[in-house]
Amino acid sequence: MAASKIIDISTPLDDDTPAYPGDIRFHREVIASFDESGEGYQLSKLALSAHSGTHIDAPAHFLPKGKTIDQIPARRWLSTAVVIDLTQVDEVTAGDLEGQGIRTGDAVLLKANTHRSADSDPDDFCAITLDAANYLASRKVNLVGIDALSIETYSDPAWPVHKKLLRNNILIMEGLRLAHVKPGRYTLIATPLFITGGDGAPARALLVQRG
Q1: What is the DSSP annotation of 99-136?
Q2: Listed residue (71, 60, 84) closest to 162, CA to CA
Q3: Mean pLDDT score across all residues of the chain
Q4: Taking CA atoms, which of 116, 127, 160, 165 is between 20 and 30 Å from 135?
Q5: Contacts 24+ apart (CB under 8 A), 121-126
């Protein structure tokens, strides 16, 4: 039997982790540590947003009556996935997604920003358009993820892309790291923190590739 390869596609959480403009930045403070003899213990206090680093948006993030992160069935965190390389486009349209082998129930992971500086220049990144969101809704996918701080640009305060996906029961994962991942099919394991009433949560995202 061929061995499986595990690929981590998560953003590490530290003081250098970029944050969505205006959002709280991640910070870890050590509030207890070992003494000079090595006795005692270490304990940290964390300050972060529910949308820090690699994270999942629940429907409640944009929909007043949407499900919160704890109300989403656990089976949604494990799914087939397709990684699509769109690094040569300026925005992701429906035409870019057609013919990419997207199947019902897939997690669609968009490798779109590896040649840009989306984290340091939030006004210049590749995001998905509303017609791409409509196409993904028609395919009835499980989740859409992207290697940027947001799935859509910051230019429309109505957030039509987020709302289209979430209203169609499509989860959103942002802040991925996909530069080291080849296009193709995988199994995605993406487990967010189990936050009661959460509009979203940081997640550890892993791809499993059969050898």
Answers
A1: TS---TT-EEEEE--TTS-TTT-TTS---B-HHHHHHH
A2: 60
A3: 93
A4: 116
A5: 122/20, 122/21, 122/149, 122/150, 122/154, 123/154, 125/149, 125/150, 125/153, 126/86, 126/87, 126/89, 126/90, 126/91, 126/92
- Sole residue written with tokens 């530069």: 179
Nearest to 202 by CA among 14, 2, 7, 6: 14
Share of the chain above pLDDT 90, in %: 87
For residue 82 the two structure tokens come to 């397709």
* 10 DSSP assignment: P
Domain 4-12+50-210: give its CATH code: 3.50.30.50
Are the C-beta atoms of residues 117 and 124 closer than 8 Å to each other?
yes
Q: Taking the alpha carbons of 5, 6, 9, 14 in that order, is the dihedral positive or negative?
A: negative
Query: What mean pLDDT do residues 91-102 have?
Result: 97
For residues 72 and 108, is the Cβ–Cβ distance under 8 A? no
pLDDT one-digit tens code per residue, 21-68: 889 999 999 999 999 999 999 999 999 999 999 999 999 999 999 999
Catalytic residue ranges: 61
Q: Are strands 143-146 and 107-111 parallel, antiparallel or unpaired?
A: parallel
The Cα 199–Cα 86 span in angstroms is 28
pLDDT of 99 reads: 96
Domain ranges of the chain: 4-12+50-210
Cβ atoms of 174 and 202 closer than 8 Å: no
